[in-house]
Design brief:
Length: 120
């Protein structure tokens, strides 16, 4: 990764079948959360050589009162929910960072995820 202090977490997951829904997701992106630097990396693995697609800097999390991104999950609604372990000052209870896949993994906000289920 391009910055010192990045400690990657859960780097084996990618856009998966649980995200099948209104978005056309092909499993060609990795979301890499960093515990120590509070960054989130989106890596495009659709080509032979993986490429860094986007970096969500710590300041984006701090504006929402979030820090220490940990585990994530993709939803059929086109959102990614990333659990966080605390606040920027190291205190408090974690929450959730929400990213919008359709908007190039733009930060949507915190805490609320709209889930859509279909039972056939």
């Amino acid at each position: 990764m391009p910055h010192l202090g990045d400690e990657l977490r859960h780097s084996g997951c990618n856009v998966c079948s649980s995200s099948l829904g209104p978005q056309d997701l092909r499993g060609d992106k990795l979301v890499l959360t960093c515990l120590l630097s509070d960054r989130v990396y989106i890596v495009d693995i659709s080509k032979e050589a993986p490429a860094l697609q986007k970096t969500i800097q710590a300041e984006s999390l701090y504006k929402l009162g979030l820090a220490t991104p940990h585990t994530y999950h993709f939803f059929p609604s086109g959102e990614v929910m990333i659990s966080t372990l605390g606040k920027p000052d190291g205190s408090g209870q974690g929450s959730f960072l929400i990213l919008d896949i359709a908007q190039d993994f733009a930060v949507r906000g915190k805490g609320v995820v709209h889930l859509y289920f279909s039972f056939g």
